[in-house]
Design goal:
This protein is an alpha/beta fold and about 260 residues long. The chain has 2 domains: about 80 residues, Elongation Factor Tu (Ef-tu), domain 3, CATH 2.40.30; about 160 residues, Rossmann fold (3-Layer(aba) Sandwich). It has 6 helices and 17 strands. A 7-stranded mixed β-sheet has the order 10-9-8-7-11-12-15, with helices on both faces. β11, α5 and β12 form a beta-alpha-beta unit. The longest helix has 13 residues. The protein is globular.
């Protein structure tokens, strides 16, 4: 697939390290699907769509650093969307969100609200100024906020609240954020027999986006993030290396 040229129409500074880049066309997609973003002369990296015409990006490496230097009128390449996306189920759902994981779950919250679902969100960040899409989640339904330093909401981790509420009242649970956070969520839902009702958005080093190279596989079953995911049910992950290992750019297995 040849990348489409995406011209930046405007940029929103969401947090000190996160920006949303809107571009000049919309993509029909399922919340949770991703696109391959080609930063010319640097790299091609996977990013979730936060809106039909936008990606929300955290500055963490060479490619995103160059993207952060771009201004309105500059452009990057886009292939996709790829992957399976979230499956909305039932009438009452819980979103467990950490950091830039708010990008795909913000899109899911919008879709759930438009479909008339009851949405509750646990939104976590290290501190108050790093909370992403707070207003967006609040408009979709009930919102609980956690910050590591206690600068807003509950002091502690999003998973602290997950362990304190009655999860059985939800038809489905969705989570995206740091893998350590999602792994804790998986342990909680597995402990109460709800792993099949939880969906997780995984991130790995994706090279081709076509399921050919195997760089993004999760052992021991060879699940491909780029094609079989990036969304997986909890019962698909319970006996995998999820939460324990991943692969770097060279394919080397490293601890999370």
């Amino acid at each position: 697939m040849i990348p489409m040229d995406a011209e930046i129409t405007h940029i929103v500074n969401e947090t000190p390290s996160i920006r949303t880049f809107f571009f000049d066309f919309s993509l029909e997609h399922i919340p949770g699907q991703y696109v391959m973003v080609w930063i010319r002369g640097v790299d091609e990296v996977p990013m979730s769509l936060s809106y039909p015409n936008a990606i929300t990006v955290q500055k963490i490496g060479e490619a995103t650093s160059k993207l952060f230097k771009m201004v309105k009128g500059d452009s990057f390449g886009i292939r996709g969307p790829f992957g399976n996306g979230f499956s909305l189920e039932g009438r009452s759902i819980l979103l467990v969100v950490g950091g830039v994981g708010a990008a795909p779950l913000g899109a899911l919250a919008d879709r759930a609200k438009s479909d008339g679902l009851r949405v509750e969100t646990i939104l976590g960040a290290k501190r108050a100024d790093e909370l992403l899409f707070e207003k967006r989640f609040k408009e979709a339904g009930d919102l609980l906020i956690t910050t590591d330093d206690g600068s807003l909401g509950h002091k502690g981790l999003a998973t602290d609240l997950v362990g304190e509420i009655d999860l059985t009242k939800y038809d489905a649970i969705y989570s995206c954020g740091p893998e350590e956070m999602m792994f804790r969520v998986l342990n909680v839902v597995e402990g109460i027999g709800m792993s099949s009702r939880a969906q997780f958005s995984l991130q790995r080093y994706v090279k081709c986006g076509l399921g050919i190279c195997g760089a993004c596989c999760i052992d021991p079953y060879g699940l491909r993030i780029c094609r079989d995911g990036p969304i997986f049910r909890g019962d698909q992950l319970t006996e995998t290396e999820f939460g324990r290992y991943m692969r770097d750019a060279s394919g080397k297995r490293v601890k999370i």
